[in-house]
Amino acid sequence: MLVNNKSWNGPISGTFTPGKKSMLIFLSGSAWAGAPGLIGVELRLNGVKILQASVFTNETSSHKALIPVSVLYENPFDDYVNYEIVPLGGTILDYNDYFNLTVTVFQ
Questions:
Q1: How many domains does the chain fold into?
Q2: How confident is the prediction along the chain (107 residues), in pLDDT tens digits per residue?
Q3: CA 64, 101, 99 angle in degrees (round to 5)?
Q4: What's the CATH code of the domain at 92?
Q5: Residue 89: partners with Cβ closer than 8 Å, 6 or more residues away
Q6: What are the residues whose beta carbons fall under 8 Å from the beta carbon of 28, sequence distance 6 or more?
């Protein structure tokens, strides 16, 4: 588990070394917005968008659980992988929003 119930205090990022292997990636979290619309975050590996957790909100200024997502990803990188969780446009994140990121590497 790379991120375990971590509160937002700026971009959540880090590094891990899976090798050139298959990975099952799972992302969940929460977010809010000042107006109705799509809210969410995306996970980037080495700057490339891998997946997006999002939901549509009708209410303003109300924290919503993002729909958890997972993907089977074939890692093309030999060395370390940088990960970053970043908000989508119009999405607001604060210390009341929490995130989980789990990566299972298959041998």
A1: 1
A2: 999 999 999 889 999 999 889 999 999 999 999 999 999 999 999 999 999 999 999 998 999 999 999 999 998 878 899 999 999 999 999 999 999 999 999 97
A3: 30
A4: 2.60.120.40
A5: none
A6: 53, 65, 66, 68, 69, 99, 100
The reported pTM is 0.93
> Tokens 């070394």 sit at which residue?
17
Q: Tokens for 29, please give them.
A: 């979290």
Name the token pair of 16. 């891990």
CA dist 59 and 40 (Å) reads: 14
d(CA 26, CA 70): 4
CA-CA distance, 107 to 93, in Å (whole number)?
A: 35
Measured over the CA atoms of residue 13, residue 5, residue 50 and residue 11, the dihedral's sign is negative
